[in-house]
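User: Please predict the structure of the protein below. I'd like the answer in structure-token form so I can feed it into my own downstream comparison script.

Assistant: Understood. Taking the following sequence of 269 residues as input:
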Amino acid sequence: MFLSIPIKTSMGTMIKFFKKNRKQLLGQNKVSKYLLYGLGEVILVVIGILIALSINNWNNSKQLSNLEYRLVLELKNDLTETQNELTGNINTLTNIINKSDSIITYLNKVAPEEYDLNEYGINNMTWALFNVKLYPKTIAYENLKSLGIQLVSNDSIRFYITDIFDRRLPRIVLWESAAINSQTNLYNALEQNLSTIKSDNYEYYSLVPFTFTRDSKNLFINRLAILQNDRIALNSLYTDLLDQINILLKLLEKEYFQRNKITKGSQNL
């Protein structure tokens, strides 16, 4: 129990008063008044206990509220970083999808012997074998989960948190793996037709097809189309996830940070 000093002092004084009077009443054989004073002493002790419990509960509630705020602040920072990376991934993947669509359209128009990598553009062809991967920040959520998601008092916020981290992110991992597998299958199927080049715009190497037979061209188109399907699905999941993160960040701002600013402002008045 956490009794404050004034409460302890006043209660101790009153209990001594009751005890002194009970002794006097007992010496005077005034049993009824003795019992009444005894009852008063019991009531006083009960009131003291209830006050102590109330103070204790208030302290615990304040500590939990502070812990919740710190965890939510960490979560907000992690979500903001993931939001920024996700926006970049969506832009990059959209570009990859558009470039790869143009590659498929081009290859469907030309005969294998008419294929000219230099004419089409080496840098354009390198986009065909690119992929992206999201690396979300999850440390704050893991901390929150270990302490108990119920620490977050707002039901809507709790729903969006679990929806993002326990449902949407695992689905994205699966589709990223699917896209990487499709990319690997394309590499393996066309290994003999691929050559290594260094990009003009970036300091890395890429594999691109320099020549095609009719069969290898069709195989490249088919494998690339399968990879495109995985990319399109992944991009849709990225976009949905970004929407959910945006909603959650707005809820966190309204529930915790705007309210906290208002509370601090009113305290300074």
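That's the full token string. The first helix runs from residue 5 to 27.
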